Amino acid sequence: MRLRRDRRASHRPVMAAGAAFAMAIAASVLVVGNSVDNAVAASTTGVTSRQITLGATVPLTGPAAPGYSEIAPAMNAVFKWVNAHGGIYGRKIKYIYLDDKYDPTTTATLTRKLVLTDHIFADVGSLGTPTNLAVLKYLNTEKVPHLFIESGCNCWSTPKFPETTGWEPPYTVTGKILGYYMKNHFKGKKIGELYQDTEFGQDVMKGINMEVPASAVVSKQTYDVTTLSGAMTTQMSALKAAGAQVVVLATIPVGTALAMLPAAAIGFTPQYVVDNVGADAPTVGPLLSSFTTAATHTKKAAASATALMNGMITNLYQPPESTSSNQWIRVEKKILQRYTGKLWAQHGLDGNTEYGIALAYTFVQALKAAGKDLTRTSLMKAIDTKAKTFKTPGFSPLNYTNTVHYGYEGDEVVRFTSSVGTYKTPTGTWPGTKVLSPVYVTTTGSGPVKVYQGKEPAVPGTLKATA
Amino acid sequence: MTASHTRADAEAGPSGTRPDAEAGPPGARARAVLGLLARRLRLPNQPLVRHLILFVLGAGLFYVLTVNVGAYNDYQIGEIAVYAIVLGGLSVLTGLNGQFSLGHGAFMAIGAYTLALLQLHADVGLVGELVIAAVIAAAAGAVVGVPAARLSPPYLAGVTLMLALGLPQLSAQYGSVFGGEQGLTTTPPAAPGSLSPERWLAWIQLFCALVVLVLLANLVRSRFGRAFRAVRDDEVAAAVSGIHVARTKVLAFAVSAGCAGLGGALLVLSTGVVNVGEFPLSLSIGLLAAMVFGGAGSLVGVWWGAVALVYMPTWSTSLSQHLSLGTSAAAYLSDAFFGVVLVIAMLVSPAGVQGGIRRIGQLLWSGGGVAGLGGPGGGVATDRMDQETKERSRP
Lengths: 467, 395
Hints:
The complex is a heterodimer of chains A (467) and B (395). Chain A is built from 17 helices and 13 strands. Chain A is α/β, with parallel strands linked by helices. In chain A, a hairpin with a 2-residue loop joins strand 10 and strand 11 (428-435). In chain A, helix 5 packs parallel to helix 6 and helix 7 packs parallel to helix 8. The radius of gyration of chain A is 26 Å and the shape is globular. The N and C termini of chain A lie far apart (73 Å). Chain B has one domain (46-348). Helices cover 75% and strands 1% of the residues of chain B. Chain B has a two-stranded antiparallel sheet.
């Protein structure tokens, strides 16, 4: 090209002018680019001496919003409590949570907004598997901590993405612990499975089938979450026809309701074992009542919902919200009541608000552990090296290391039963919770399910005194 | 496109000599000057030259826009460009050929997965990846187009709806190839120098959008474009005139799907990942609504539709937060908001936003004292294209 240009001597002035113009454009681009970078790079992004800015994408509207929309405001209640007591090392927490409607493309866009215009320090408590997968790579490329994702996907712990961590027990761990319990307590019983045909359901069942003998499983049914709208009569009839005595559900709350209702209608009353995701009584209960009400136009629905939940077995990794004597539960209720009165009035302490409080409190512990000179590196280091000392409501410690980025890896098995009393929330009255097993711990791999020997951490004095 | 008004305008009077050009009063002289200006400003008649001039103007506009906003806005402008490409294809299919598609999200997914798989397994460069993504999606469009060519609109909607619902299942079914729910990651092109990656990608996406729209605009004015319209207006008459109806319909579908595929491929360069969740049925329906909103058959209108697709969710969320609605009400508000905007747009301007703008422009122009416009003012957007073709085919 250069040779050809030189030959066209007569065109040189024009060429020179063109080149100068092009360089001017290039220079203007560089200048604009640099000025933006400099403005941000002055200190650790999102951290000043007085404030820490955090962000998250969560479904506040759309199909995934019922229940899940409570989590971020509950988290914010904890941050408000922190701010009301002087912040962390004098820094107050600003939490920006945006509505992605559980749509990955929206998540991708809004996460860029959080990083590029809100200049967040870290992305904390974003919800969902497909949504977080859409920003996993971006946040890691930008070196923005992508912490405590609200999903138990086995995919959050990978050396390729060191900025990303899960928080709740991975679905396979949950499945293994439920499977272990079933293997020991339902010997010789016929087991039927119904699961959501996505990573969530598949991972839970992977764990269950690692423990339960294959010969015991008489039928495996699935449902497609994208078309989930009506009662799952077909699947439940198939499980009934196969003679299942125990039915394991790996379902979201709506799925649980749409499975249990038609089963009851065809007189099928197996022992339900439901994964934690779809088993929170104050979340599933209102769904059961609303679907029943829609179908029968009766007001007796709420009562029958409570009856349907009665006897169901599930797993928990933090204290059941119905145990009013538990110190953590007391503190959590106080924080909700004081710092997010509206949420408290609408939902009280249910599985979702409890989840949000515990997750936010975990992050507060991480910020404290990271020390006064807060950087993204010091935060990640604190999580990787000091997480086992964090005092959180979880039964078992947080297992973060520099290679493992799952959080909790322990569960206890419980049964909802009115025989131990009931639990009242603004949405209804639900059966109490009876503990059936010790706390078990295990890993996503082939390792055994073991009884956890440690004790649940006590509520830190400062939290108890100030909440 | 506004330039063609001036042309229509110029053709209204005898070419060259306007009756009022020699008149004495100053008002008339001013009008004469305006008329002269209008004729001077008109773009050349060759479609390619015309469209290339518009291309350069568009590129300049976008350059100025992108360098004056932050990285996040660059990202959104890039998204707008992507949707402009997809809507361009859809607009040609529906506005010009009269076919419907509720499945364009699926063609976007095909392009997106093609790009991701190419990045994983082959080294063909960005241009290669984009071209192949568009070609594969176009091929898929041709396959769908074959039965579609035999179906009337309601059944066609059913077929394409099935595609939008069914195709994502395929990628879940063959998880080892398509990465299951997690999907596949994509790598955006590295930005040269200290240019922000968002701006660089936005430039690539805008460039692609302008190229595609120029190509579509040329196609619209070619023999194929005339065949598309002939088939839309009357299949029997078209067949009698020697147009192969089925082949024309399949071609329109393939072109349209190719645009969607290219759009999908460019979109996942932005998001950095391709998975099933990115291409829900609601996307396909949103695309159709946005295309109608912008103005079916209008290639300028696609930009309005694309802007609506990118900004409407944000606006509706702010609105629901402003009204502090409950979550369940807010969930419906988002859809209702888009629906209401669409309904209002249709009531105010049946030819979409672009049709409305054109009508306002015509009213202002004729009110300005320049010789009156011929033809029906503010007809539907597709009529515009027809009109231009007629004008062009005049000796």
